[in-house]
Amino acid sequence: MQPQVADEAAAGRHAASTSRTRRAARPHPPHQAGGPWWRSRKVKGLGYAAPTAAFVTVFFLLPLLLVGQMSLSDWPLLAGNRGGNAPENYTDITDGTLFWPAVRFTLLYTVIVTVILLGLALLLALLVQEHRPGVGFFRTVYFLPGALGLASASLLFWGLYSPTTGPLSPLLEGLGLVDEPVSFLGAPTSALLSTVFLVVWKFAGFYMLILLVGLQRIPHEVYEAARMDGADRWQIFRRITLPLLRPSLALTLLLCATGSLLAFDQFFILTKGGPDNSTVTIVQLIYREAFQRLDLGTAAALSIIVLAVLLLLNVLQFRGLRRADEP
Predict the structure, then answer these.
(1) Is the dihedral of CA 221, 225, 230, 234 positive or negative?
(2) Where is the ABC transmembrane type-1 domain (predicted)?
(3) Within 10 Å of residue 162's Cβ, how many Cβ atoms?
């Protein structure tokens, strides 16, 4: 009797197992395979990306399309779109008396600021790289001007440079270095150098921080191995530090060059393009076309040209960095 009961129990278990296997093998509807469709990873990813995509579309793509339309149209600021006039806006730019001087001055300013800023930022980063007493204080002091807005810093230096109310000119007179008040912004060369000094003071600590992060990512074992092989400081800097710091240097170069080509606040506040339009930048020229000559079409065309130049510059920099990284 007992063997028969055992056989029946085994048969029942086998039938139940077969039934579960058949139910598991049945295909489920697509929307029930991983739960409801709105819980799938693809839908969640689209949900996370949707706010950013909407922001970029509303505040970048649509304005860019509008600027492109303006650049091909006769579009006064107060009258609105009067119809297409391509390529008149682009030809009017190059025929203007301020265009080529503004291009030359912007390029000169960019080269001077980029060279000085990168060199000084690298020097400061090397000085505060090691953990020594007081290093934290100097890092804070170097970075502190970067916390000030560029417009606020420009107003501050405008007051310092003033020959009547600023402290610099009376200080130089008191030291006997000059015999009369100094107009730091009254001549083209002095206006350029005074603005460069402001920008270097403002941004040197920021770029120092970027390079300092890159320096701290270099393993100490690499330096120790180089010292054991008899390398001196200059060889270590040239053969180890600079090659391993190349990504950070490329980032600072990109940011510095782009920011210098788009310079506006400092010159608008300090010099307003003077003296004799000698410090007019490309962005200042866009401002003049749009809000002084009231011609949005020409301003938009100039903006498109600047955007194309910046894109080309960034592409060339990235390609150069990629080729340098190849063995």
Answers:
(1) negative
(2) 103-317
(3) 16
Contacts of 115 (CB under 8 A, 6+ apart): none
- What are 63's two structure tokens? 């304005």
Q: How far is CA 221 from the centre of its chain?
A: 32
The full set of domains in the chain, from first to last, is 99-279 (1.10.3720.10)
When pLDDT is averaged across residues 229-245 and rounded to a whole number, the result is 88
Of 309, 296, 250, 318, the closest CA to residue 102 belongs to: 309
Give SS3 for 295.
Answer: strand
pLDDT at residue 201 greater than cutoff 90:
yes
Burial (Cβ within 10 Å: 0-12, 13-18, ≥19) of residue 295: buried
Average pLDDT over residues 22-35: 50
Residues in the chain: 327
Q: What is the DSSP string of 140-181?
A: HHHHGGGGS-HHHHHHHHHHHH-TTT-SHHHHHHHTTS-SS-
Q: Are 296 and 70 in contact (CB under 8 A)?
A: yes
The DSSP code sequence of 236-278 is: HIIIIIHHHTHHHHHHHHHHHHHHHHT--HHHHHHTTT-STTT
Contact 296, 75 (CB under 8 A): yes
